[in-house]
Each structure stands twice: as C-alpha cells, then as structure tokens.
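An example makes the point: we print one protein in full, the chain in one-letter code, the fold tokenised, without further comment:
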Amino acid sequence: MPSTYLSFRCSVPWLIISVEAVFVVFYFLFSDMLTFFTYSDLQDVSHMLIIGFGFFLTFLKRYSFSSMGLNLLIILLGFQCSILMENVSLFLTGGMLGAAMNVVAVVISIGAVLGKINPMQSIVMTVVEIVVFCMSKLINMYILKASYLVSMMHVHLFGAYFGLAVSSRFSEPPPRAEKNASTPKSDLLSMLGTLFLWVFWPSFNSALAEEKDKVIFNTCLALAVSAVTAFALSGLITKDGKFRMTHIHSAALAGGITIGYAADSIEYPWIAMILGLLASVISILGSLCLQSCLHPTLKIHDSSGVHFTFGLPAVFGALAQVIFWVMEIQTELPSIGSRVVLNIGASCFTISVALITGLITGLILNLKLLKPIPVSKYFEDQMYWEFPHLAVGF
C-alpha cells in the first residue's frame, strides 16, 4: 500500500493542477463572462449533478467514498471545461446553464465504468467527453438543423453509449464478485440520489425550453407514471412478488428522460402519461434482457446499468418525438418532413459519435501512463481515500 500511495500522490494531484493551469490559460485567452441563465435553473441542475448523481452512484458497498467524492471532482472540472467549450465555440447558445447540463453526459458515462477506472482516467475521460459532446452538439445544430433543446436532450444518449463503449475496453469483474455488490445501506443512499434526481428532473427538462410551464407539467406526469409503473412491474416480475429496489432505482427516472424530447409539443396529459408508462416498461424489461446479453455475448460490464436507466429511455424519447412530427406531417404540416429526417439523423449521429469516440477513449485510458488498475482492485475505496478506522468493518 505505501508504494501505491506514493504513485498516486505523484500522479493525480499534479494532473489536477496541470488541468487547472490549462483552464486558467484558456480562460485568459478565449473566455468572456457567460450570463445567459436563470440562477434558479442553474441551482436545480447543480443539485441534480452534485447531490442527485453523487448519491445515485453510491450503491457499491466498498466504493461509496469514490462514488461521491470523485463525482464532485469530475463535475467541477467538467463544468469548467464545458463553460470554455460553450464560449470558445461561439455557436452554442446555452451559456452557463447549458455548460452545466453538458456535464450530465459525463456523470452518466462514469456510471458505466464505476469502480473500474482511477482518478487520472476519470479526469482524462471527463475532458475528452465534454469536448466531443460539445462538438457533436454543434454538428447537430448547424448541419443537421436540430434545435439546441433537442441537441441538449441527446446528453442522455451520448452519455450512456459513450460510457458503454469505454466500458467495453475494460476487463469484466469476476462473476458474483464480493466487492461488486451492494448493501441495504448503500442501496438506500443510492435511492436517495434517485429521489433528488426525480424532484429536480422537471427543472432540467424545462431549463432551456420556451414553454416552461407545459414542459414542467408533462415531465411531472411522465415521472409520476413511470415511478408508479416501476412498482407495479417490480412486484409482477420478481419470483417472490416483492418490490426490488434496483427496479425502482432504474425506472423511476425513465419517464423524465423520455419526455424531455417532446415535452414542449405534447398538448394532452394522457400522452405524457402513456410515454411515462412505456418508458418504465422499456427500462425494467430492458434490464432483464440486456443483463443476459451484454455480459455473456458482448462482454460489456455496465456497472450501474446506464444503458437501461438512461440509454433506452432516451432512444424511446427520440423515437416518440419523430412519431409526433410524422403525425403533424399527416395532418397539417407537410413541410416538416425534412425536419423529421434530419432529427433521425441527429440521433443516429449522436449514438455513432458516442460509440466511436468512446472506444477510442477506452483505448487511451488503458495506456500504462494512466496506470490502469488490475481487476483484483476494482470497486475499492482504499486505493484513493484515507480510512482511520480501516481495520474495523470495512
């Protein structure tokens, strides 16, 4: 342990200082003050990122310090990088609020490789992903003509599939590994994160929308129905007929993710409710199918289930938006056909960029320079945190 600690001290702190120094130089050269936001919206998004996702990822019994602490580190570094990208690009219009929302892609991706990458790898992954996601937003907006709101909602798609692609470059943990498990306490803390995300998700969906009241109303309905459906499905599909915390944990947010794409165009509450119900069904049933497919077939270990928690509901939301536009074509707006095609292209482009750049990033993270951790050291806090009570109950 002493040699490991010395190696850690000689690498991670200096990398953090170096990244901050680079940010200061770039801010001096390129960045001006970003003021295009409402502080209450920024505050809600910050609560989601720091508190919501912080607790959301604490389900591993020996990795809770790193889940919460390193989550804060990558959020703060990612936020600075995102502000810089929003400013330097000149064409992105979300300002400081958009910069904060970009970081959601990173925390989703980190969930796929949770416990398998060290702080150095987390920092590199954060900077690369922020840069690539902002560039993909630019292409979506100015080549594929997607709105800024729709391009921002792709943050769930990008984060999930980027994380899965990175995870594919790392070795799987042993099946039924003792450290790759949760406890009632860690599950409860993780559910607390889900509750924070559930409460603040309407703010996330409406932050950049013009019709905020409509978006908030539809998002609240979709979230409520998806959470209720999660309880019903959990009781139906478990062998003993009891609720399972992992089902609620993964599906309670599905409705909010799906509705984000079309919340401003839904005129009837029952449509939002159906989307929330279907999103929850897709999330829970998808988790059952993917767990038997990704592990044995594709050899991808998704630590926190970001694929069925964020990826699949986002894919469904993008498809639902296309369906609504097709209905508009058939009724009153035939000129919207090209818009439908371009937005299908934007979704496919986002997933493709996420997968390709995720694979490349995974290869970079496995370079010896970044000190990849061995499989035997997966899901351990002891590598990075001081435990005065180390020998007792850890």
User: Anything to note?
Assistant: The chain has a mean pLDDT of 85. The first helix runs from residue 2 to 30. The CA atoms of residues 177 and 250 lie 21 Å apart. The two ends are 16 Å apart (CA to CA).
